[in-house]
Amino acid sequence: MLKEIIGDNMVVVCNNCQAENSYNVSEKTVSFSPEFNEFENLNFECPGCHTIEIFNMNIPANDTDENFMSGDLPIGEEIQRYYVRLLMRIARPDLT
What we know:
Strand content: 25-35%
Structural class: alpha+beta
Order of helices and strands: EEEEEEEH
Shape: globular
């Protein structure tokens, strides 16, 4: 789970062991795959238990671009999408 992004650093809480790990994301870049017509996911490995956290870099870049058929998302999901959108603006070359 993405806990926060401040400047070039992000904190991820491992879904397996709950450890908080900091990562510098200033040099992270994801590639676009013409074959799949989307950007690759961004992965981070927990140094403690080696669980891999995967962040989808293909959600709509703006929250206003999403239509939710069932109403509002749970607040935890909305927070995660907010942080993933910040991460997308760092890692995706088309959004930087």
